[in-house]
Amino acid sequence: NYQWLATPAIINDSLVFAIRVTNTGNFDAAEVAQVYIHYPSGNDMPVKELKAFRKMFIGRNCYADARFAVPLEELKKWDTGTGAWKLFKGTYGVVLGSNAGEEQLKASLDL
Fold first, then answer.
1. Disulfide: which of 19, 60, 72, 96 matches 105 by Cβ 3.0-4.6 Å?
2. Tens-digit pLDDT profile for residues 49-69
3. 109 near 14, Cβ under 8 Å?
């Protein structure tokens, strides 16, 4: 079970947020929380990209917290019009889950 401790915000040129993952199962387990970025619509933009992950060992009926900071520099894409790296304006999605097809948490942010 995933929940936001702090929703995504821009702090010191990074996309910063924190989550809590709770093990509701009957056994101790490991969970890999994966952070995917959905880019604004546009030419040559990926649908989503893995930007961070954290492996957590969580006892049964316990939780683990994780803080993430994704530098905005890592969200830049090549602008074929200017021939330079650019942080495109628009709405970015932040999605967390244990794999690319799972969306435990979602948030959006305008840059």
1. 96
2. 999 999 999 999 999 999 999
3. no
